[in-house]
């Protein structure tokens, strides 16, 4: 991607734990950063205040004069056509008019909204593990589970910005109810909180610090704790089933796994790859490669900027190879 005009995109990455912002240039560099914790259990106005705080830091930077647009990657579901978001993990925001509010906060700049998984896919295709791949599924495995698709070498957002939202594919038909209203969703099994819950139910106990997060479960699994290993094995199985379904439907060649839970490494990816062989049996789906994401916590910001730049034609969109 080239940026002949020197214009920047203001990117926002909105999730259940953090609201991050950055000014991003056409080479993917984050020139200015801002961040607030997400007051996820508070009312809509309180959450918006946190967004406004992040935007305020960005608009105060000298580089703001070069900003041409705003790109937002938000926990979903989102409705890009309506400009609204209803994040499962932020109950105060239901059909919240985020695009209009972001436009107001940024002085009327054009705003492009996509799901956080779509943003991650845009980033990993441009600068990360899906670079040079024509057909890819990129997944965020964290507090929730999201995803995005690259098809035919282009980011595929779908009409509402949710295409590839693998976290809410049902992989356990009679499974537990999910916060989305469905049952047996990938997210209900493979997200960090549910990995922790399953490990605790299986008999794992945290260390003296009392940390029950997924990273602590991963450390226990690496040390051989059976309940921790079983929780990650179950998560890997759920992810494998979702990836296989996606590969069968749209013929992807690679699945990129990112997000905080993916930091567990082979504790998660090992059982995922093993079980993928069980589910992706057809010849055109069996060759899907599973790789870790490369861009880490910056993927949402880089991808939100890339998605906006592609949609609005701000930069010359040609994913580097």
UniProtKB/TrEMBL annotation:
Query: Which family, according to UniProt?
Result: Belongs to the ROK (NagC/XylR) family.
What SUPFAM superfamilies does its record include?
Actin-like ATPase domain
Q: What is this protein called?
A: ROK family protein
The record's annotation in PANTHER family points to: N-ACETYLMANNOSAMINE KINASE, ROK (REPRESSOR, ORF, KINASE) FAMILY
Q: So which domain of life are we looking at?
A: Bacteria
């Amino acid at each position: 991607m080239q940026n002949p005009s020197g214009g920047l995109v203001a990117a926002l990455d909105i999730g259940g734990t953090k609201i991050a912002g950055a000014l991003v240039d056409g080479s993917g560099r984050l020139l200015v950063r801002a961040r607030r914790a997400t007051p996820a259990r508070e009312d809509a106005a309180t959450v918006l205040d946190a967004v406004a705080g992040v935007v305020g830091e960005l608009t105060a930077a000298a580089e703001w004069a070069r900003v041409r647009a705003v790109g937002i990657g938000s926990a979903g579901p989102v409705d890009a056509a309506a400009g609204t978001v209803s994040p499962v993990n932020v109950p105060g925001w239901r059909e919240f008019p985020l695009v209009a509010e972001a436009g107001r906060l940024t002085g009327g700049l054009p705003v492009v909204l996509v799901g956080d998984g779509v943003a991650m896919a845009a980033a990993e295709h441009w600068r990360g593990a899906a670079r040079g791949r024509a057909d890819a599924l990129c997944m965020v495995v964290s507090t929730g589970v999201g995803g995005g698709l690259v098809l035919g070498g282009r980011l595929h957002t779908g009409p509402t910005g949710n295409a590839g939202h693998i976290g809410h594919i049902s992989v356990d038909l009679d499974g537990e109810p999910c916060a989305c209203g469905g049952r047996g969703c990938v997210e209900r099994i493979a997200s960090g909180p549910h990995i922790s819950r399953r490990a605790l139910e299986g008999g794992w106990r945290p260390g003296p610090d009392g940390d029950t997060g997924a990273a602590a479960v991963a450390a226990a699994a690496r040390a051989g704790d059976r309940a921790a290993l079983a929780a990650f094995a179950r998560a890997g199985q759920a992810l494998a089933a979702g990836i296989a379904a996606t590969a069968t439907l749209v013929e992807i060649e690679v699945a990129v796994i990112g997000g905080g839970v993916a930091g567990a490494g082979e504790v998660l990816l090992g059982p995922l790859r093993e079980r993928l062989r069980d589910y992706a049996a057809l010849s055109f789906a069996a060759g899907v490669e599973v790789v870790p994401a490369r861009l880490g916590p910056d993927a949402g910001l880089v991808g939100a900027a890339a998605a906006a730049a592609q949609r609005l034609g701000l930069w010359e969109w040609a994913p580097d190879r």
